[in-house]
Amino acid sequence: MQAPAKGKLITILSIDGGGIRGIIPGIILGFLESELQKLDGEDARIADYSDVITGTSMGGLIATMLAAPDKKNRPLYGGKDIKAFYLDHSPKILPQPRCPSIIADPMRTITAMAGSKLIKEKLGDTILHQTLTVVIITTFDIKELQPTIFSSFQVKKNPSLDALVSDTCIGTSAAPTYLPTHYFRTKNPDGSVREFNLIDGGVVANNPAPMAVSEVTKEISDANLDFDDPDMKPTDYTRLLVLSMGTGSSKSEKKYSAKKASNWGVLGWLTNDIHLSTVFQSLKCEIYLRIQKIVKVGEASLKSPVSRVNLDSGVFEPLNQGTNEEALERLAETLSKEKQLCRGRSSPL
């Protein structure tokens, strides 16, 4: 790892889980990429401007699609391709049950098998260390009862994590009650085998941005870098530029008190519309929103004013910084300038 050049930002793109609502960040990424292409040419891709791309659940699939190489060692997918991918393939990847059930549904198994086959076909034999930029995917191993983070940073120290990116995608998207646990194995250089029994990464972190920031700062600290600026510390977060993309929320989401939820039991938890992670995301979208309606939501979000959550009230409040579309245009300019500034220099990661 090389020390960051002066003025060089470390850019992190983070994509939340959200089932079929992943089309919303797809629309936003498509717009951002189009702005980058206006500045730097038609070959510009999101991965060219991202030092780290992280994702959970279907966000993990988007992350690896953006970072996986094609035969020319360029990004397999651009930001503009995500929307089309969802429109064409979401029925093959995402289950569409009528309601959560503890009874096995053969149609879900068929859907899961078809989805896994499609993902493997699209991502091919790419393994984690071959991605064009650092990739971090969150999952949870139900046999070990602990999170498993597939991070490009870790593969040299722990080669058992150097898995097929298609396996990490299927694992991080395996929402309990909707898709089966994903099992696969990897082999270490010494011949030993590691098993993985993975479920949805939303169990760990539906928003993987904090996990990515932690990985980046740990990597910098472990490298004991000698920064150009003597006053710069390895954990100086002013050098991190994070674009964290959510997938919205359903207006039907309800809130419950601890007293009301304490006596639910298994069936109560399965039948109440709880937003704990991405577990119920696909269901809510399939029941309440048709995919074209979700597209309209994503497109409308570009025209919405820039806002942030008031941590006291939980309400989004405008920041008088224009629309999200205008903010993305400004972000594209920043990313383009950083890329030009650091042309010919090593990435900080």
Automatic annotation (TrEMBL):
A motif (GXGXXG) lies at residues 17-22. It comes from the Eukaryota. The active site is at residues 57, 200. One of its GO terms (biological process) is lipid catabolic process. A motif (GXSXG) lies at residues 55-59. GO terms for molecular function: hydrolase activity. It holds the Pfam family Patatin. Residues 13-213 form the PNPLA domain. InterPro entries: Acyl_Trfase/lysoPLipase, PNPLA_dom. A motif (DGA/G) lies at residues 200-202. Its EC number is 3.1.1.-. Keywords: Hydrolase, Lipid degradation, Lipid metabolism. Gene3D superfamilies: Cytosolic phospholipase A2 catalytic domain. PANTHER family: PATATIN (PTHR32176:SF120), XYLOSE ISOMERASE (PTHR32176). Belongs to the patatin family. Lipolytic acyl hydrolase (LAH). The nitrogen atoms of the two glycine residues in the GGXR motif define the oxyanion hole, and stabilize the oxyanion that forms during the nucleophilic attack by the catalytic serine during substrate cleavage. This is Patatin. It comes from Eucalyptus globulus (Tasmanian blue gum).
